[in-house]
Amino acid sequence: MKYDRILIRYGEIxxxxxxRNKFVDKLRKSVRIALAPFPNIKxxxxxxxxxxxxxxxxGIEIIEKLKNIFGIQSFSPAIKVDRxxxxxxxxxxxxxxxxxxxxxxxxxxPKRSDKTYELNSDGIxxxxxxxxxxxxxxxxxxxxxxxxxxxxxxxKEAIYLSCETIQGAGGxxxxxxxxxxxxxxxxxxxxVAGYLAMKRGLEIEAVHFFSPPFTSERSKEKVxxxxxxxxxxxxxxxxxxxxxxxxxxAIREQIPENYSMTTTRRMMLRITDGIRQKRExxxxxxxxxxxxxxxxxxxxxxxxxxVTNTPILRPLITMxxxxxxxxxxxxxxxxxxxxxxxxxxxxxxPSSPKTKPKKExxxxxxxxxxxxxxxxEAVNEVETIIVKPADDQQSEFKSLF
Length: 401
Ligand code: ATP
Ligand code: MG
What we know:
CATH superfamily of the largest domain: HUPs
Family: Belongs to the ThiI family.
CATH class of the largest domain: Alpha Beta
Oligomer: single chain
Bound molecules: adenosine-5'-triphosphate, magnesium ion
Low-confidence stretches: 394-401
Subcellular location: Cytoplasm
CATH topology of the largest domain: Rossmann fold
Binding site for ATP: 183-184, 208-209, 265, 287, 296
Shape: elongated
Order of helices and strands: EHEEHEHEHEEEEEHEHEHHEHEHHHHHEH
Number of strands: 15
Strand content: 15-25%
Protein name: Probable tRNA sulfurtransferase
Keywords: ATP-binding, Cytoplasm, Nucleotide-binding, RNA-binding, Thiamine biosynthesis, Transferase, tRNA-binding
């Protein structure tokens, strides 16, 4: 017997009260995008669950895609059967026989959303369990740790059978938390921060500071490749490349060396905030982790953060580098991040940046020069690239032949 659908459970969405329909719609959209390569599937959604009807498409491949969709708590390959008891008995037997290997144990787990059904939970247990024991020689019951757990879910419209529950990615559906700018360097941390922010439903646009000729085209390619990985989650991501050379040169001329890093960060934040405003985002995401480097002490954050009231989200703030690296490995960005190209922040690094910069001092140093026109220029002269995932490009390429 073959599964004909996949039952999707929502998890956290189901706590969303009046906004629930909006969340379900967003999730439905993500599922549709992720399953675009399977044109025959059909999606049915209701308040508390969603079904992907396979219609002959490859269930195994679809399961792999579903594992990466945010907003899904868990899912199960399932079969829809008629509520007739004889039909239920036969379908249960077909399913368990197809999974059964010699000497295995099973149990039946009934769940009745519709209490008017002719069998109650005990009745289902006895009728179906008895039928299976009689029909499959060697099959034994184990209610604690069964090899096969046959879930029988009785609903008004039909009964659903499933034997396996697969963990979903969790989080909230994409786009359900509004839009934010991700400050994306070529390093290990910021792509992971972007991934975690997306996991909580944020729509992300990446902003990268680029300082030619001090940073090379190769370092820009690296950021495009990182964006491509993040694009797998959405189907596409906007990458905004900011020309930063003029600002950095002004900083080098105007600001004492030990404060240049603090001012560089302040300028990056002001520019990102300008872009955010233009693109109607509501927050800025960074890959900062407390105490990791001089610019990431609380004293530094206090001095840097002063330039904006916009919420700065720092998903990695309490994480250790080893844990961040593990996540980077999981989301497959580590190898790209490890490519050895320089970042704009590493080119003019002072030998001893302040780990405890003073807000008043940095304000004082910056007061001798008007950075605003340079900031406006950077905001206005950005290059905007829409980055698509790798396999998407391949399919475009294929269609040329
Ligand atoms: P990452 O591994 O993300 O580069 P990092 O530990 O190297 O982080 P920093 O270089 O101090 O830390 O950068 C801190 C944060 O500032 C980054 O996580 C990123 O969000 C932002 N950032 C740094 N450089 C750039 C850049 N060139 N363009 C955009 N954002 C940047
Ligand atoms: Mg970096």
